[in-house]
Design brief:
heterodimer, A: about 270 residues, six-stranded mixed β-sheet, about 35% helix, B: about 290 residues, alpha/beta, seven-stranded mixed β-sheet, about 25% helix
Chain lengths: ~270, ~290
């Protein structure tokens, strides 16, 4: 593994390739007799943002967990750049998970190491893929803190000392530092107040564009979906009931449940 | 030697079980082999793992040396040495060169070891990832996948907080480029002696039921960063009794007024030098 200064993690915006980055077919996961998610299929191209919306318990997080490899799926195929993740050996999957993928948890406490400094949090993925130059790791961490609008002077503070919004931005920096292609986000703006949410969304939009990321974002907030997602998938009871372009789904919902969901949004 | 005990206290079946674990550990350097650790007539934390490994390795012709932090005359060392004098009747010594089996707590002797010797370490916590990752299932998976990035997170934290790698004992090592191992709480001064050592090195953790090992001449590398390389450190002083400048030193407070002295932690090494006429700052007859 290359460990020369600043070599491994400088992968720039990926070259557009033919074919989808992620192709999911007939994905299913059961919790005993109950359905977690069933018969889910979609594709995702580089640079595309897919939103998954639905009420609590509709299988959004189960689906995301299966995609990320946190949960073993029961049925179907998940093809990442043409390779089936369900068939992939664990070491290879782990390597992918910390180089080409990223997972942003709803609660930053799940995605961060609360006991170590912000710099170590950002540097962890670099060290996991073989970075062994302290100065280079620190420089990259400093750079990334700046990019997610955290004062680089706080590099030696623990995440505990950060506000909720800062923790979430730190989690994003920690995930994006290796220049992933695919980012999975589980309610990234949940639990943040609206002004902090707005800044975070701005930041996400910018990073997605700048790095050419493909993103799957699970949310129950339709405004977040409207702002970030190119396409939308609506889930209910573990199944996809409607899918299409975001504006199309939100402005002209076809399924009864989607109509209910769209009309339940409070207007200010 | 006491009547009524098997040779070296443990029964034959137990020794067989431990020897199997030892062979497996030697076959996979740095890998922690589980074994069915027995109750020993001493409390956990007093070297029950080391004693079981020693008991499983001892033969009547062995000459045993036991050290505790380098010293032959501290409680732990004396009681374990007496234990094997009574239960195995083997000869004992304090001279490193004369011993065929050395049980040690937290030091590697200063004198170079030979192919005829076995070094047995007492290990409190064999898992180098334990304080970074509390889940046993997860640490095993990390070892299986050689997923050791976390180890460097710890070293990164050290440098970020203290300006240098402040871990001074139980310094993690990479064995044969594969397993990260905790060398038991030896000072990092001793780390370079782990690698390419002619003697067999066995590590027994009684409470944690694990044995790991380094066969002779194993490649052992202390983890570090390119711009913060590993450094074997010791107190910046010479032994006040024998004048040695290259041995690992203990600092001893001598009065309530800030008086202190340094002396070799390896008592046999120090005594040998004094017998050969070397003098330290506080030696009788020194200037």
């Amino acid at each position: 593994m290359e460990s020369a200064q600043g070599r491994i993690w400088t992968r720039k915006k990926p070259e557009p390739e033919a074919g989808p980055l992620l192709l999911v077919e007939g994905l299913g996961k059961a919790w005993g007799a109950r359905i977690g998610c069933a018969d889910v299929g979609f594709d995702l191209y580089p640079g595309e943002v897919l939103g998954i919306v639905g009420e609590s318990g509709s299988g959004k997080s189960t689906l995301l967990g299966c995609l990320a490899g946190h949960l073993p799926a029961d049925a179907g195929r998940i093809l990442y750049r043409g390779r089936d993740l369900r068939m992939m050996a664990e070491p290879e999957r782990r390597h992918l998970a910390r180089t080409e993928w990223a997972f942003v948890h709803q609660n930053p406490r799940d995605g961060l190491r609360m006991g170590v400094t912000a710099g170590a949090n950002v540097g962890e993925r670099l060290m996991a893929v073989g970075a062994r130059h302290y100065g280079a790791i620190r420089a990259t961490a400093t750079d990334w803190l700046g990019r997610v609008e955290i004062d680089p002077a706080r590099i030696d503070d623990r995440p505990r000392a950060f506000s909720g919004g800062m923790q979430q931005r730190l989690q994003i920096a920690r995930n994006l530092v290796t220049g992933p292609r695919l980012v999975l986000m589980d309610e990234p703006t949940g639990g943040l107040d609206v002004s902090v949410q707005a800044r975070l969304l701005d930041l996400l939009r910018e990073l997605v564009r700048e790095m050419g990321l493909a993103v799957i974002i699970v949310t129950h907030d339709l405004a977040v979906a409207r702002l970030l997602a190119d396409r939308l998938m609506v889930m209910k009871d573990g199944r996809v009931i409607e899918a299409g372009l975001t504006d199309q789904v939100l402005d002209d919902p076809q399924a009864a449940y989607t109509q209910l969901l769209v009309s339940s949004v409070l207007q200010v | 030697m006491s009547e009524g005990y098997s040779f070296a206290y443990l029964d034959a079946a137990t020794k067989r079980m431990i020897r199997r674990a030892l062979l497996k550990a030697l076959a996979i350097p740095g890998y922690q082999v589980p074994f069915a650790s027995r109750e020993m007539p001493m409390p956990y934390g007093w070297g029950t793992g080391g004693v079981q490994v020693t008991a499983a390795c001892l033969i009547p012709e062995d000459v045993l040396k036991v050290i505790d932090q380098g010293a032959d005359d501290t409680t732990n060392a004396v009681s374990i040495r007496r234990f094997f004098e009574r239960t195995a009747g083997v000869a004992t010594t304090t001279h490193t060169q004369d011993a065929t089996l050395i049980q040690t707590r937290h030091r590697i002797p200063e004198a170079a070891l030979t192919e005829a010797q076995i070094l047995v370490f007492q290990v409190p916590i064999p898992e180098p990832l334990r304080f970074l990752e509390p889940r046993e299932a997860e640490t095993r998976r990390m070892h299986a996948l050689a997923d050791y990035g976390l180890m460097h997170v710890k070293l990164y934290e050290d440098i970020a907080r203290h300006g240098a790698i402040a871990t001074s004992y139980a310094y993690p090592v990479l064995v044969e480029g594969r397993h990260v191992m905790d060398p038991s709480p030896i000072p990092k001064f001793d780390n370079p002696k782990l690698g390419d050592c002619p003697a067999i090195q066995l590590f027994g953790a009684g409470r944690e039921c694990r044995i790991h090992a380094l066969p002779p001449y194993t490649r052992v590398v202390s983890l570090d960063f390119e711009d913060h390389p590993f450094e074997a450190t010791k107190a910046e002083a010479a032994c006040d009794l024998c004048g040695a400048e290259t041995s690992y030193l203990d600092e001893v407070i001598t009065d309530d007024a800030g008086g202190r002295m340094f002396c070799c932690s390896d008592t046999d090494f120090c005594a040998g030098r004094r017998a050969a006429g070397h003098l330290g700052r506080l030696s009788e007859g020194a200037a």
